[in-house]
Amino acid sequence: MSDIASNSFVRQDLLTERPAPVKTTGFIGLMRTRLFNSPTNILLTIVGVLLLWFTIIPSVRFLVVQAVWSGNDRAACLAENAGFVVGACWPYIQAKLPQLIYGFYPEAERWRVNLTFVLAVALLVPLLVPRLPAKGLNASLFFIAYPVVAFFLLHGGGLKGFGLSWTAGLLELFDDSIFGAGQALVGLSKTSAVGPLLWAVGNVIVLVGTAIHWLILPLTWLRDQFQGAGLSVWADFAVTAVIVSLIAFWLGGGLRTGWRALASSIVAFVAIAAVIKLMGLDSGGLPVVATNLWGGLLVTLVVSVTGIVTSLPIGIALALGRRSTIPLIRIFSIAFIEFWRGVPLITVLFFATYMLPLFLPGNFTVDGLVRALIGIALFTGAYQAENVRGGLAAIPRGQGEAAAALGLSWWKTTSLIVLPQALRHVIPNLVNSFISLFKDTSLVSIVALFDLLGSLRASFSDPKWSTPSTAFTGFAFAGIIYFLFCFGMSRYSLFVEHRLNAHRRN
Question: Residue 386: which of 437, 341, 325 has the closest Cα?
Fold first, then answer.
């Protein structure tokens, strides 16, 4: 015990003070550890500050400090009247705002556009919030019911038939195309060197068209009877509802398990009937507003949203087709993707607007806006196919093998296991394509469709607002609109990516 006490040591003097630890949090810590911790970072920080100084400060000065906020004409935005160097002319934006949003849409009917926007927000916001319930119903309303309602709200018009008449019309158009192609070949056989071969092939095609005509004759006869009796809408609607409900009942399992599918079909048709009656679609509907009067933000949103919604299913189908083991499907998917990815979008728009009508039958016309929408959807779908294919290639082979070991079919393996993981991997690429598409909608102005930028350029021709800062103000306003939408999509994609990758968080 005495040895332990004699060997113990007790310091009698205080230790010298050591410097406080370097602060690594907060603004001071950020500057010390990130901005000024090395000569390279010091140089980059100085360059960044100078860049912000020469861009942000002049922008704020132009848009806010030196801006004119009230006035009735160009005189308010002239420097000699304002008494200072005039920046943004916001009275011009206030005066042209209806044109920038609606284009040349009739003023008395603009409530229809506003109602369409309100319905879109009311259906889209609950779909984007993960915690809200009834996602299946909400998705059905947004992706199926809303496009139909929005079409009749924006375009107007009514229904002249329903599923039966539409099916008969499409089959009749298909039959006319086949019959016309056969007659054309028979006509060419009279002046061609291979006339007998063309004559034989043409007559075979004519016989096929005749057979199709007799097959669809009961359907077309029933349609003509409905239209002749003046009950084409509701009688057609009732027959369509009965046929579709019976098919749903049979596919759902018949007498054993098909009652739920039957009830869902009946409820859906009751809702459709309510919409038809509420909007007066059986009696002409709302006044027709031609698409050449649409413009501004309305056209931008219609083109971008339609392209975004339709391109993703097209891309998924093409990506799966490119990986198919069936040679015909694989070759068609590869040819489709490579063709549309090798053609500029402006060429696609020109082809869809001016050349597509040349390939259609003489009695069949497609609206100019619809032609542009089809071209943009196919063009973007080809790019989305490669994005989705990259995600599919990133899925380990063992995922499919494990699903096969559990006895799952190819469809269930793809839809429940492989495809959800693939789409999660390529969320940044998909959203990047969506943002690019939203900005590329300005190209539709080349084919006489006035989107936001087209309406903006059209407003510059008004001499009432011709000032040196008018064009800069208009482009600044359009840039703010594009930035808000694109930045919103970018931030939401980060939120979805972070939420779906919860298993990878530290």
Answer: 341
Q: How far apart are CA 242 and CA 41, in angstroms?
A: 72
Are 445 and 294 spatial neighbours (Cβ–Cβ below 8 Å)? Answer: no
Q: Which residues have a Cβ under 8 Å from the Cβ of 494 and sit 6 or more positions away?
A: none
Phi, psi (rounded to 5 degrees) for 14 = -75, 145
Cα angle 315, 319, 325 (rounded to 5 degrees) comes to 150
Task: Please enumerate in sequence order all residues whose Cβ is within 8 A of that of 438, keeping only pairs 6 or more positions apart, or say none.
Answer: 300, 304, 308, 482, 485, 486, 489
10 Å Cβ neighbour count for 239? 17
The two tokens of residue 480 are: 């703010």
Annotate 297-321 with three-state secondary structure: HHHHHHHHHHHHHHHHHHHHHHHHH
pLDDT, one tens digit per residue, over 469-488 is: 888 989 999 999 999 999 99
Dihedral sign (CA 362, 367, 368, 371): negative
The pTM assigned to this predicted structure is 0.82
Express each pLDDT in 204-226 by its tens digit: 888 888 888 888 888 888 877 77
Residue type, 364: F
Amino acid in position 371: R
Q: Are 479 and 100 in contact (CB under 8 A)?
A: no
Q: Please tell me the number of Cα atoms within 13 Å of 203 on its side-chain side.
A: 6
**Of 269, 271, 280, whose CA–CA distance to 236 is shortest?**
269
pLDDT digits (tens, 9 = 90+) for 90-127: 899 998 899 999 988 999 999 999 999 999 999 999 98
CA–CA gap between residue 131 and residue 136 (Å, rounded) = 13
- Measured N-to-C along each axis, helices 232-251 and 217-229 cross at an angle, to the nearest 10 degrees, of 140
Q: How far is Cα 274 from Cα 268, in angstroms, rounded to an integer? A: 10
d(CA 387, CA 380): 11
Give the pLDDT of residue 321.
92
